[in-house]
Amino acid sequence: MASPDIDVRYVADLARLNLSDAEAATFQKQLSDILGYVAQLEKVDVSSVAAFSGPVVNNLRPDVLGESLPVEVALSNAPQQENNLIVVPKMIE
Amino acid sequence: MSALYTESVASLRRKLAAKEITAVDVADQLLARIEQADGKLNAYNFKPDAAKVRAAAQAADLSKPLGGVPIAIKDVINVQGDPCTCSSKILQGYTAPYDATVIKKLREAGAVLVGRTNMDEFAMGSSTENSSWGVTRNPWDTDRIPGGSSGGSAAVVGGHEAFAALGSDTGGSIRQPAALCGCVGLKPTYGRVSRYGLVAFASSLDQIGPFTKTVEDAALLMEVISGHDPKDNTSVNRPVPKYTDALKQDLRGMKLGVPKEYFISGIDPEVEAATKAAIEHFAKQGAEIVDISLPHTEYACAVYYIIAPAEASANLARFEGVRYGNRVKNPKDILDLYRSTREQGFGPEVKRRIILGTYVLSSGYYDAYYNRAQKVRQLIKRDFEQAFTKCDAILTPTSPTAAFKVGEKTSDPLQMYLADIFTIAVNLAGVCGISIPCGFTKSKLPIGLQIIGAQWGEENVLRAAHGYEQTTEWHKEVPQI
């Protein structure tokens, strides 16, 4: 954790995000600063601590069919669609 | 007589009930005020449509708890048929297909919805400068920021362009702007208010809450928006108290904790002096002040800037130009569609946090960053549990400084992150907190006092806040715009 060795371009690729050269350079510096700051957590003894498990316990509803949005409403914001399906560029050759 | 638009919700309700005014009068005066003031504040991304608001006011059922009361909504909450941009380019053109649960509840309570307020993009920021709609200005000094991320909601209430507003708070995004704009802002206990229809930023931290002019109004809004919702499995099935009843008790006998860790170097001397004067005021009104310790406070900001970006990187994966929002023209292939849509649609702070969050969750770093942060988060939660065995509520400053100048911190994200140093731990622990006005700087900028309550401790927080407010005059000041 001590060495903020982030490779901004590699991580941006994992996040499916293009960056300009200028952005990559700025983020490299800023994110190194931020990671340097969060590295202070190394000082905390957490050897006998269980990880936080959530602020509340999930309260799941019964798995029964209820009312939901009609298909055309659910798709109304899709940039491109056909026959109640969302259209994207070809994925599989 | 002061202008109608400066009234509180409770006072409007009394005048409407006594037929001194009509809901249409209220709507008309507010619409005129927005026309007069919003050109200077830029607090609304979408100003209310005058004809629609008048029609809604005309039809409002005045017997309902918020009948005829105009309320503004942060542009991150879905209102059916309206835009919901999160102040991002990527959601321009999006139309909400359904109502968030809080909106459904406001409608059922007779409220008149007015406009969508500006914010930092996807609620990431502390100044409302990270907005594709331009910066919102502080109603007390238009050269300064209103705080963030719910800066628009704070500015419309502090600047009397709305009687009340909803915002969302992930690390301080209700309390910090409320402090900087001189109004009341409440972050409820995690699970108290349904998040259904709130665009998610960090799901284990986000809560919706009210901005109001008085503590009584905050209690009124909490009675309406709280409660279990089967559509949010983290909303808790627990009765909603009549929060306004908590205001009937004065401060005598309340035990209020003061944590030494919140009075650190770097806090502005005027903010520190106002906070200490407020603590003395509580003592004079009969509250018992006890020294407490929240020993892991210094780590809260570091924990937050691992956990919140981690959750955000996952939540914002859904914005890739496929199901909604903007899509780039003529992508080479599907990967280019994702990458270029996100490059063009997101602003710099959102990109920064997506990269940071992806990094701390990536193979080889997960244990060192994310897991460790979750353990320290547990220690922070335990600090609060122990503190609340000694007191009913905790008093701290809301923000280390009053409102800073537009542009002052934009080039240094880490400095901007430290603006939330006093509010973040409350979200990490899942407890509740309010910010109320407790003074002004010499240059007449508002200062906020934070009152933190235990999990489900809203009644204590509201009682303490109301007891202070009713024996001080700060909340009666109105900015000149």
Structural commentary:
The complex is a heterodimer of chains A (93) and B (481). Chain A has 93 residues and is mostly helical. Chain A has a domain at 8-43: Orthogonal Bundle (Histone, subunit A), CATH 1.10.20. Chain A has helices at residues 8-14, 21-38, 71-74, and strands at residues 81-82, 85-86. Chain A has a two-stranded antiparallel sheet. In chain A, a hairpin with a 2-residue loop joins strand 1 (81-82) and strand 2 (85-86). The longest helix of chain A is centred in the N-terminal third of the chain and has 18 residues, at 21-38. Chain A is flat and about 55 Å long. The model of chain A has no long low-confidence stretch (mean pLDDT 91). Chain B has helices at 9-17, 23-41, 50-59, 101-108, 151-158, 175-181, 215-225, 269-284, 300-315, 334-345, 348-361, 367-387, 413-417, 424-429, 458-469; strands spanning 44-46, 70-74, 112-117, 164-169, 184-187, 207-212, 255-259, 288-292, 393-397, 432-440, 446-453. Chain B contains 15 helices and eleven strands. In chain B, strands 1-3-2-4-6-5-10-11-9-7-8 form an eleven-stranded mixed beta sheet, sandwiched between helices. In chain B, helix 7 (215-225) packs antiparallel against helix 15 (458-469). Chain B has a domain at 4-247 and 455-476: Amidase signature (AS) enzymes (Alpha-Beta Complex). Chain B is globular, with a radius of gyration of 21 Å. Chain B has 481 residues and is of the alpha/beta class. The model of chain B has no long low-confidence stretch (mean pLDDT 96). At the A-B interface, helix 1 and helix 2 of A face helix 9, helix 10, helix 11, helix 12 and helix 13 of B.
